[in-house]
Amino acid sequence: MYKHGMARASTTSDPFNAIAEPRRRHILEFIAGDERSVTDIADALELGQPSVSKHLQVLRDVGLVYVRREGRRTMYRINAETLRTIHDWSGMFARYWRGQLRRIKAHAEEER
After folding, report:
1. Which domains does the chain have, with CATH numbers?
2. What is the C-alpha to C-alpha distance for residues 76 and 68, in angstroms, rounded to an integer?
């Protein structure tokens, strides 16, 4: 019980843990272009509304989505600032991969 509570705490405070879950990544991909309601998201991704709401709550807790009420609908949109921190972090590895690819190419050309 205690261990599960710890895992839960890290998910709710860390955007990296939040996006480790594939369905949450799908939700972010779906709402990246436009603000969407829970119903829109559930229908598009063929998920139950309670499940979508839980995932959205996690994304909201870590600051990856903004939420706004529109009458009886709850609308969600992406928070680009929090996504930028993830993008910047993963971008550090782009230089490494480019270097690796150059080395592989050079090696392949030597073999010929």
Report:
1. 2-79 (1.10.10.10)
2. 7
